[in-house]
């Protein structure tokens, strides 16, 4: 089964980037904390569902592809579902869902060229359909389903956000933060190593105005 970690899964190692974020929060008297992140700090081999994971080496490749280090669906929910009998198919793009005698889930085979033609897609029937395609993918599927007659809320596609509403970048700063990833090279030890992509948060939700520098 997919289990919940009993301990806080935040990065406890000190990196120069964390120190800078903490310093900025103190200057603005803002709330600073280390978030729980989906990074493996526990396994160096098969995890609790049998997928081999490697301990984090702090190379800072979270955005470009941190293979086997992150605790994402690929490493837990999906293989656990497969272990319990679920059938998983790749290379298929869900187009929309219709309500007939059962739920009709229409899809097309990716790379087949059928998307160039206005033809009927392949489909499967199910008693229950759970749409779980991420923030943007789910809204896209549900809006197409609505266009094909599925009765759903008019609020679909409104009032949601992606992973972070603001991205900030620092260049030529007074403090060296070592935030460039090492790829397949071995990074130096902390605090010189870049570390995970998300290690510190400045919480401004109770701030009247957005912090500017």
Radius of gyration (CA) equals 22 Å
Structural class: alpha+beta
The number of helical segments is 3
Oligomer: single chain
- Which of globular, elongated, flat, extended, rod-shaped describes the shape? globular
Give the strand line-up of the largest sheet. Answer: 4-5-6
User: What's the helix-strand series?
Assistant: HEEEHEEEHE
- Percent in helix: 10-25%
Low-confidence stretches: none
Beta fraction: 5-15%
Let me know the average pLDDT.
77
Total number of strands: 7
Fold and architecture overview:
With 213 residues, the chain is α+β, with helices and mostly antiparallel strands. It is built from three helices and seven strands; from the N terminus they run αβββαβββαβ. The strands form three sheets. It has a three-stranded antiparallel sheet with strand order 4-5-6. It has a two-stranded antiparallel ribbon with strand order 1-7. A hairpin with a 3-residue loop joins strand 4 and strand 5. The mean pLDDT is 77.
Q: Could you provide a short overview of the structure?
A:
Helices cover 15% and strands 14% of the residues. With 213 residues, the chain is of the alpha+beta class.
Topology:
Layout: H1 16-27, E1 31-33, E2 45-46, E3 52-53, H2 77-83, E4 92-99, E5 103-109, E6 122-126, H3 134-147, E7 201-203
Task: List descriptors.
213 residues, alpha+beta, 7 strands
């Amino acid at each position: 089964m997919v289990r919940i970690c009993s301990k806080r899964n935040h990065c406890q190692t000190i990196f120069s980037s964390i120190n800078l974020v903490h310093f900025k929060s103190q200057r603005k008297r803002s709330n600073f904390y280390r978030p729980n992140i989906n990074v493996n700090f526990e396994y160096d081999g098969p995890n609790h569902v049998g997928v081999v994971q490697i301990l984090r080496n702090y190379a800072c490749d979270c955005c470009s592809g941190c293979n086997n280090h992150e605790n994402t669906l690929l490493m837990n929910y999906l293989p656990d579902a497969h272990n319990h009998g679920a059938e998983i198919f790749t290379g298929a793009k869900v187009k929309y869902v219709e309500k007939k005698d059962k739920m009709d889930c229409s899809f097309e085979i990716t790379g087949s060229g059928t998307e160039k033609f206005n033809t009927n897609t392949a489909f499967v029937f199910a008693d229950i359909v759970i749409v779980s395609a991420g923030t943007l993918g789910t809204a896209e599927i549900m809006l197409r389903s609505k266009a094909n007659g599925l009765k759903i809320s008019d609020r679909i596609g409104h009032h949601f956000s992606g992973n972070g509403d603001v991205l900030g970048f620092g260049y030529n700063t007074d403090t060296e933060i070592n935030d460039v990833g090492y790829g397949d090279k071995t990074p130096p030890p902390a605090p010189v190593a870049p570390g995970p992509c998300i290690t510190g948060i400045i919480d401004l939700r109770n701030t009247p105005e957005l912090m500017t520098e």
